[in-house]
Sequence to fold (396 residues):
Amino acid sequence: MIRRPALHSVFALWFVVGSVSHALGSAPRPADAVATGTLIIASDPVRAVVYVDGRFVGQTPIDELRLPAGDHRVRVTKDGYLENGRIVTIAANKSRAIQIRLTARGPAAPSGQSPPLKIVVVEGEDAVNIIDKKTAVKPTVEVRDRNDLPVAGASVVFLIDGGRSTASFAGGLRQLTVTTDSLGRATTTELSPLGKGAFRIQVRAAYQGQTASATIHQTNFATAAQAAQATQSSAAGQGASSAGSSGGGLSAGAIAGIAAGVAGAAVGASAFAHRDASGAQTETLNLTGAYTGTVTVSGSPGGSMAWNLRQSGTMVTGTDNGFLPPITTYNGIVSGTLSGTTLTFSISVPAGAASTPGCTINMNGTADVTNSTISGSFSGTSTCLNSLNGVFTLRK
Fold:
């Protein structure tokens, strides 16, 4: 005879299991780290300039660029070719690869030749400016020669296009001329948002009879709250035009930052306030400055890095003059994003910027940062080094 469990025993078992499940499900979860995935970008032709959410990330090919999960706006440009822009969705803990074929603008450039002068927008593209806080992202550009090396002493003209009611430089000027510094960079001293809406800043560089031009797109909002309200409509509009060339609009990263609760702060501020889980400010990170230190590559010590950084909010850009054992010295471009006290970065070294002829280097990594130290690791690819995995510590 089969004995059935007493009814009260069944209910007791159900109560215990249900209570345990409820306790497990409702237990407080530790603060989740930002979910990330990786993006691989290739283009035809190669050595095209890539921006992700308005931030310069390097030149193609780009291997394993780590990004927060979600939608990101990718723009790929190259002199002599039509710009290509699209929305790319990154899944958490997944890798996605895209291949972009650029369309030549008019007659194709002779094979193997690069333009004698070019402009790379370092800061300011797709920037969000807040009128009532009088905050704006000052445009910064870098002028390079045909070997992708910075050009010092070039004359750069910034011209605000879109009417007098959009924005102005210092003194109410709409046009400003700046000479590039030793890093080939030119920055406007001041930018004031005046009226709501999108506008453009035309940039023209001249050096020894050669010229280059670029366009920077920015958007003004009356308040940070209005910028946050634009999140959904902006994402929908970008998604509808994901296959076309990109124009003005909002950086998804900037909009997300405003919506996350930084309303009222300067979107283009040079420092980033780090907060703990309760929202209390723990320290203000400002990575602008020079950092030097040692590097160990694939177990071989003796390497070095010298970073010269500029910080705008959570965005970090700059240069890296380094040595990777056993033989290669290089001049690279650093770009990264801060999340708390973690810097996710990439370093791009195009051909002609390394001591080994024809050598290209692409590094991606993460680092723990304070206002005085940067310590982390990286991996990547290179045409002149068999292996590219390293650790480093830099000090201000």
